């Protein structure tokens, strides 16, 4: 599903974040050490190869809400933006830390003059953030950022499962109508 808001394409699609050749950057749901892990981080590091972790090491550790940018190596993108989401129930305030992830990722994309970026559902896997709450934070953060954007033309949310896809699609419909 796609919509255009303030000249920026907002897309929601089911897929694997490590297989998005048309995007300049993909966002990694990282750990503090920026090391290969499970879920998104496992897929991203697995496809990028060991050079990615070598570039990451001196940039770590990062704190919840922070983001850093690297090259993408074996991935079909120019860059990876690594972001540490909050662990739900531990890192507080969760909503503000999650919002910072998305805001800081967009900021890095803009600073690097990227035209497209793909996000997974940061914190909604191993870190346990309830998906219904996370999607609210994502769009409440995204919409006020759109008027500041100069370079990005496409922002894509890459959802792994059907439940996530439906949540994002209904939110996007709500926004497109409202
Ligand atoms: N593409 C898109 N989405 C995915 C993919 C994929 N290949 N794989 C999983 N998801 P998670 P977190 C979904 O656990 O909660 C790692 O081990 C998944 O269904 O990757 O921020 C790191 O090293 C879920 O909805 O990220 C950290 O230690 C969402 O992406 C920790 O997990 C995020 O799941 C980070 O946990």
Could you walk me through the main structural features you see in this protein, from its secondary elements to its overall organization?
The protein is α/β, with parallel strands linked by helices and 178 residues long. Helices cover 37% and strands 20% of the residues. The chain is built from 5 helices and 7 strands. It has helices at 39-48, 50-56, 94-111, 131-145, 162-177, and strands at residues 2-5, 8-14, 25-29, 67-71, 79-83, 116-119, 154-159. A 7-stranded mixed sheet has the order 1-2-7-6-3-5-4, sandwiched between helices. Strand 4 and strand 5 (79-83) form a beta hairpin. Helix 3 (94-111) crosses helix 4 (131-145) and helix 4 runs parallel beside helix 5 (162-177). The radius of gyration is 15 Å and the shape is globular. The mean pLDDT is 97. Ligand AR6 binds at residues 16-18, 29, 31, 37-41, 43, 85, 120-127, 158, 160-161, 164. Residues 16-18, 29, 31, 37-41, 43, 85, 120-127, 158, 160-161, 164 line the site of ligand AR6. Residues 1-176 form the Macro domain. It comes from Christiangramia crocea. This is Macro domain-containing protein. InterPro entries: Macro_dom, Macro_dom-like.
